[in-house]
Write the structure tokens for this entry.
Amino acid sequence: MKLAFTKMHGCGNNYIYFNCFDQTVPDPESLSIKLSEPHFGIGGDGIILISPSDKADAQMRIFNADGSEGKMCGNGIRCVGKYLYDNGMTNGRTTITIDTLSGVKTLELTVKDGKMQSARVDMGAAILAPREIPVDMDGESVISAPIVVDEKVYHMTCVSMGNPHCVIFQKEDVDDLDLTRIGPKFEHHPLFPERVNTEFVNVLPDGSLKMRVWERGSGETWACGTGSCATGVAACLNGFANKNEDIVVHLRGGDLTIRYTDETVFMTGAATTVFKGEIEI
């Protein structure tokens, strides 16, 4: 059986995309594990299925490199928007909707020479209630709360953007972190019943943020859209940034711009098509 695919990335967060309007992808959990492997597969952070929806222009389903299904991917949804527009599936409209496991999201596309260059995504309201994130703590929110990992005390701010995030602001340069060692210990910490994505963040002198991320199910990735949103929200909650102002987040794969309002969180960034191909499974 042959499947057509498109390799795309948003700030280096790279997935393998399948158009399921005209083909069926069997057992996507196992396929994601197989194809994400860089030496024997295509290589990537997982696979994303683009399918018809009765409530939006399309539906996206995300499968991480370990086969687990994700609820939302901020970089992935921009790539889905680009795929739909560039392939003539939006009838030229630059405002489109995508159905995800975290609800329907609206994208405003910026187009040049007939191709989508970037998108502003309405990511929805940030969730701060611990039980809804979820994190096993009491209270109305978790802001700069202590957590002990590997015998060291960190201070975390927890946010859900449709998936759980633990944001750690630190003075030590995040570039010096041994993320492959510490990341899994946060991901599987008993405070997080559904595991967690963890962002390690420096506040730079110009007010922008430098971030590295350990994603549950994928490990370190070059960017995380929902993680950047959570980081922008956490920066406001901790007094490092202001609501209703653009917050630039520097990731290993590029920059995203976040704006946190009382109603929602906006994320703006680019999306890139790398190559197209066909694989026999």
Summary: The CA atoms of residues 70 and 88 lie 27 Å apart.
